[in-house]
Every structure is written in C-alpha cells, then in structure tokens.
Amino acid sequence: PTVFDIQRIRADFPLLSRTVHGKPLVYFDNANTSQKPLPVIEAMNEHYREHNANVSRAVHQLGEEATAAYEGARDKLARFINAPSRNELVLTSGTTQATNLVAYSYALPRLQPGDAILTTVMEHHANIVPWQLVAQRSGATVKAAPIDQRGELILEQYVAMLTPEVKLACVSQVSNVLGTVNPVREIARECRKRGIALLVDGSQAVPHRPVDVQALGCDFYALTGHKMLGPTGTGALWARREHLDAMPPFFGGGEMIREVRFDGTSFAEAPHKFEAGTPNIAGFVGLSAAIDYYQSVGFEAIHAWEQQLLAYATERLREIPGLRIIGEAAEKEPVISFLIDGTQATDLATLLDLQGVAVRSGHHCAHPLMQFFGVPSTLRASLAFYNTREEVDAFIVALLKVRKLLM
Ligand code: PMP
C-alpha cells in the first residue's frame, strides 16, 4: 500500500505555508480552484524562460519545442482520461468553453422546435446556461432531472426523461456544491440504448478520481485544468470522433483551417478545427506537470486520504449545534455544503477569513440547486489531498468562534 506522506506533499505547495490576517492559512476552497504544486509553477516558468514561441507556425527550434510541449499536453490528457485517441481531445480554456462548444457545434444544428436537452437540478450554470441559449435560438426546451433531499440524482426519473425529443443529455460526474458522485455509467448505458448523446461535466471529478471515458461510456467529457492543480485558462473537451467530424467549427481564425479562399474555406481535421487562434501554451505546459504530479502521488492514496478527511470533517461539523449539512449522498467527494441556524453564510465566511480559513459562501453557480433546497446560499468547505486533519480541527475551532460572535 502507498504511504501517504502529507508533509512532503504540503512542501510542494508553497502557498499552503503562508498566513492570512496573521493566521496560518486553511485553504478549504479547492472546488473553486486548487492550489498549484512547485512542478507546475516551475514548468511554466521554464517554458517562458527557455522555450517560448508560438505553436505550429514556425519551423525554428523554439517553435518546434513549444509545439511539442503543447501537443505533449494533449497526449498526456488523452491518457489521463483514457481517451481512445489524442485527436478526440480539444484543448479549451476550461469546462465553460467546452460545454459552449458542444452547445453551438453539436446541439444547435440538431435542435428543432419541440426538441429538448436534458440536464439536472444539481448542475453548475456552465451545464445549464449554454443549453438554454441554444434552446432559445432553436425553439427547443431544457428539462432538468430531479434530485432527492439527500442530494442524490433520482436515476429512474432521469431515465424516464430520456424521451425521443431529447437530443442531448447532460450530467455532472460530481456536484460542485454537494460532492455527490452521480451514476454516470448507468446513465450512459440508458442514453446509448436510446441513441441519445451524453455530455458529462467532469470538472469536480478529475481532481479526485481516475477517469476513464471509455468505461464511463459517455459521448462528451468536459474538464477544467485549474481545479486539478493546473493553471487557470486550461481545460478540455473529449468527444467521440464521429461527433467531432460531424460538428462545424465554432470559432474561426488561424490554426484551424486547411485552405482559406473567398470562394470557400476548408477546415483542418479535429481537434485543430476547434482550436482557432493562439492557445494557452504555457498553461498546458503547466497542466502536463499537474498530471505528472497526480500520477506520482497516485489516485488510490489520494482517494483514501480525502475520504478520511471527508468523514472526519463531516463528523466534526455534526457536533456543532444548529448546523445543517446540505447533501448527504452515499458516495461523495470531499465537498461539504452547510448552514448554521441564525447566521448568514456570507457573514460566517467573512469572519472565517479573518481566522485564516478560506471557504466559499454563495450560490456556487448553482441557482436551481439552491432553489431546490430553499436556501439563498450555503457555506462550502471543499478539501483536497494536501489538506490535513489538523486543518479540519482549526476550521472547527474557528467556526465555533465565529458562530458565537454572530449568535
Ligand atoms: N462545472 C462544474 C461542476 C464546476 O464546478 C465548474 C467550476 N466551478 C465549472 C463547471 C466551470 O468551470 P470553469 O469556470 O473552469 O469553466
């Protein structure tokens, strides 16, 4: 079994040892964005110091180095999620660009008045709003599959809503608010039976578990790099080759063409057809290093440690009078949303910050989920494998203190 050397891991994340308002930082806002280990920071630094050039356009040495690094990131990401081919991986600025690409290039050309896109009540706005925008343009509708009070998707209802009008089904693998792990394989199986393409929002899954898009059986998989130790402005869309070949380009410009003529431009093959303009080259260099970092630690060890932290934090939170946890699914990643009677989430978060504790308060870009639970916002503590039990203890001490101030 892998020995989890938490102190060695923490030493790789320089930011974790800083103070905030004179207190040691407790960073529990990992679902928002993760911190970055030194190998990621150094890889980007080295790229700009030694290899910087644009990709694909130059025959000179630096151009070749930059292209090799950027295309190397595509290879690494493809292997990371077990994509059957590197050419099925479109590099994007994040999940939001990935879902919008599917909305405009896949969904919009297929949607007729009366058609529908199926999503769920627990989705992030990035997996709701793009569908609403293309539905409005085409006369289609967006339907949302329900969840229960524990914050679990009601699978039978999702399946029952996979009617013939549905041209695209969507679901997150892990909820950014509740931590719920959704039954994506089962959903994918039902979608395939009905010939409906399935998009999985993997933003909150890739930081915590090994992902295998072929085993999941979906058609599209969207991810964002900055939640998985990588830089902001990186992400990807994996899509089955048949879909990418059938999809028209979304952005036009350089790098995505075969030949441009005023009497008819022809486009490059996927994935380049979807990557107009100069990409975030240094960002993908950093993301490559992030993937190496995950692999050096290993998801088995990460999962075991995070599940221990989740159980411990949940148990400690339950000791606090008047505290209500929102989302108690049987299978969760280390994300805990909660409220404390008689207090506002934003007040708690503001006072926690003065104690050095970074958590998020608000609607977490999930208005429909807040409406379902009948709350305007929640406080969310989201953990990563570089967090510790001692930090959970410090968080609980701070929470008890600020609760007292507000009561
Ligand atoms: N989906 C989920 C589940 C998320 O948690 C997030 C980020 N909060 C997104 C989509 C959007 O990711 P990005 O802002 O990096 O595009």
UniProtKB/TrEMBL annotation:
Recorded superkingdom: Bacteria
Transmembrane segments: none
Domain Aminotransferase class V: start-end pairs: 26-395
Presence of keyword Membrane: no
Known catalytic reactions: (sulfur carrier)-H + L-cysteine = (sulfur carrier)-SH + L-alanine
A Pfam short name: Aminotran_5
Keywords linked to the UniProt accession: Pyridoxal phosphate, Transferase
Cofactor(s) listed: pyridoxal 5'-phosphate
Listed GO biological process terms: cysteine metabolic process
Enzyme class, UniProt record, top EC level: transferase
MF-aspect GO terms: cysteine desulfurase activity; pyridoxal phosphate binding
Xref: InterPro entries: Aminotrans_V_dom, Aminotrans_V_PyrdxlP_BS, Cys_dSase_SufS, Cysteine_dSase, PyrdxlP-dep_Trfase, PyrdxlP-dep_Trfase_major, PyrdxlP-dep_Trfase_small
Listed EC numbers: 2.8.1.7
Keyword Transferase among UniProt keywords: yes
Function, as annotated: Catalyzes the removal of elemental sulfur and selenium atoms from L-cysteine, L-cystine, L-selenocysteine, and L-selenocystine to produce L-alanine.
Family, per entry: Belongs to the class-V pyridoxal-phosphate-dependent aminotransferase family. Csd subfamily.
UniProt-recorded name of the protein: Cysteine desulfurase
